[in-house]
């Protein structure tokens, strides 16, 4: 098991001593939760969504100075979304891609640059940088908050591109329950049982979810399915209790267990094909206690503890004799203790200050067996919000990270919102972000038995190459690794400028322009060649990239009559994501392409579409008709992507030929939901849906996109 560093235990003891002391204090006057919003007419509009992720303090969405989006549980339900990827796929400016699971892109950044949070705490367990968002059920959520642009000034590493926070629904003050069942194509099923209840002094909600599928096969001529069969169980607990008028305790806990089964065939050159059974298992859990102490009417102390574990196991068994040809396991633990103080100075100034300690530990077959990689770091952050006037509002924040594996980082950010009228919001922000070297980039020690190549992280690289050389396996060294600098964190400076305008009470338009400069991007490079001709690879700070573009959204919510309304959102993103070295080489006229017939030709900047997997153009649609009188909701949702590069066939490091691209495609889905009430205490919701109406499939290019899928579901609320 992972161990926290000594100073982490000291921090925990210090935190709880403070809490125990505060718990013994008495106050002569009644205390209230501070209202952080100034007393102006704009901020007293009812039903405006509240968000916490963008500033780590509760604010109205319309008054957040950075690009922030809310996806409510109503949208999740009416679109028939089950997993996180289902609902993010139709979100403006977010693209899905396949790389060791379903990852996401925000503002042109790959999956490992976006921090995924559950109730404000990180979800761990990445493979090659990708956190598979289809692992995460949407059951039990109140809403999702999406913050675009670097948030390292508040959340540290992995938040260079943005943050997605999944907010669970708080337990209700009366006893309620829900049960749902859904079946669909490919023997896909989803079952959930949820119970909740409480009083004004506390409450608890618990649910159990089972999600399963037999998988699907997009290439019948190849032995084995495109995606494996699996069964996934998730249990979740959320509870809170008021110890007094000033002290509130919360607890969150979750556990997930998944098993996978598949088959595949392997054939070496000149050898007979061998068939294998693949068995995989995933186990993860987290626990999250939290204490809120109201020190006074204007100050509040929050203490959070968090521990989570993620483990996977994979086995390949030869069908002929059940010989274990390959096995792999991965184990990661993450522990955190944090304390945060909110101070409302007056109606114009609010400060948040805090800090914490984090300990992480990694284990598995791909890491040195002599010791389990372990890291720890301390961090401190501060944020100040200043409502200078009714016209302008400033927000500044900064964070200091002192990490054991790389140099300390200081990441500031400044954002401003200008409100010339009740209908117009203008926003601008500039901030720095950083992406810490991943564990694999620091500690990996892996040799592919079939391909013969090796990959080493920066720490074991020198010893690993020396060992291979001592065994007579190195033909030549390409670099002197002893002269290489330690890996540095990747850095970014980002600019976001935009705003929103309410053209009518039912019509709102939003626009955001962004530009991100990234330096010290970590990439792989050969460091030696083996006697078998294969290479030894290492990780280095090499590239400089930039991403820039436009994000826009138009939302219409007209009320058709007293019982029915429409909710329509149209989104569009234009994106450039480019490597500066390639841009410079093209401008110098030294980059060439090669046609399939072998003819070379010089390329111009117009031939460079950018980094692999990035579509220059993308669009999204969400549309719903809601009739409250008859309890009917009809919904359509979809996305369109222009073509994007996925491979390099002519050796110039980017896609420029038609056979190097995934063609443009659109995915559209639709649902119809109907509510029934047979008895006053029980509500039934029936839903039918169809995904991928156009039946687009790309078996080798987009394996996560199956053909047309239908489903039906029934939910009981009691």
Structural commentary:
The chain has 718 residues and is mainly beta. The chain contains seven helices and 38 strands. The longest helix has 18 residues, at 6-23. It is globular, with a radius of gyration of 26 Å. The model is unreliable at 1-46 (pLDDT under 50).
Summarize this entry quickly.
With 718 residues, the protein is mostly beta strands. The chain has a 22-stranded antiparallel beta barrel. A five-stranded mixed beta sheet has the order 3-8-9-6-7.
Number of helices: 7
What characteristic shape results from the CA principal axes?
Answer: globular
Mean pLDDT: 87
The profile of the biggest β sheet is: 22 strands, antiparallel, barrel
Radius of gyration: 26 Å
Q: Please tally the β strands and state the result.
A: 38
Spatial gap, N to C terminus: 42 Å
Strand residues, percent:
over 45%
Which structural class best describes the helix and strand composition?
mainly beta
Q: Percent range for helical residues?
A: under 10%
Q: Extract low-pLDDT stretches.
A: 1-46
What topology emerges from the helices and strands here?
Elements: H1 6-23, E1 50-51, E2 59-60, E3 68-72, H2 73-78, H3 84-88, E4 94-98, E5 102-106, E6 114-118, E7 121-122, E8 141-148, H4 152-155, E9 162-168, E10 176-184, E11 188-199, E12 202-213, E13 229-242, E14 247-266, E15 274-294, E16 299-318, E17 324-346, E18 349-364, E19 374-386, E20 392-403, E21 409-421, E22 424-435, H5 439-443, E23 445-447, E24 454-456, H6 461-470, E25 474-477, E26 490-504, E27 507-530, E28 535-556, E29 564-579, H7 580-587, E30 592-594, E31 600-602, E32 617-627, E33 632-641, E34 644-645, E35 661-662, E36 665-679, E37 682-691, E38 709-717
Parallel strand pairs: 6-9, 24-28
Antiparallel strand pairs: 1-2, 3-8, 4-5, 6-7, 8-9, 10-11, 10-38, 11-12, 12-13, 13-14, 14-15, 15-16, 16-17, 17-18, 18-19, 19-20, 20-21, 21-22, 22-26, 23-24, 25-27, 26-27, 27-28, 28-29, 29-32, 30-31, 32-33, 33-36, 34-35, 36-37, 37-38
